[in-house]
Design brief:
- There is one protein chain.
- By secondary structure, this protein is mainly alpha-helical.
- It has five helices and two strands, in the order E-H-H-H-E-H-H.
- Strands 1-2 form a two-stranded parallel ribbon.
- The radius of gyration is 15 Å and the shape is elongated.
Amino acid sequence: MVHLPSDITETEMVRANGGQPLKWPNDPLHQIAYCLWLRHNLKAFVDTERIGNAVMIGSFGNQDNAHRMHECGRKLAHMNGIHLYHGWPTGLSGVMKLILSDPKDWPCPVANYKL
């Protein structure tokens, strides 16, 4: 993997995770929440422009993390579209509402979320 000066380093990803190696949850909704939490923590010590470049170009420490961060971003964008249409919260609030509620109470069938 070629690294650019704007890339988020693996050390920065570990720092965003409180100094611990990243452990991705198995559940897609928890992965999205974890991704948002990591991005929030990165903002404490990484320039916002570098985070934006990493989102666009795709480098978050290593190939696995980059893939997971982008996959979560795509799933979140899809979920936000569904939630906007149905008047549900978006972003982390929307993810948490899904996690805490019964899937039969979701605004559309689980299969439509493409998780």
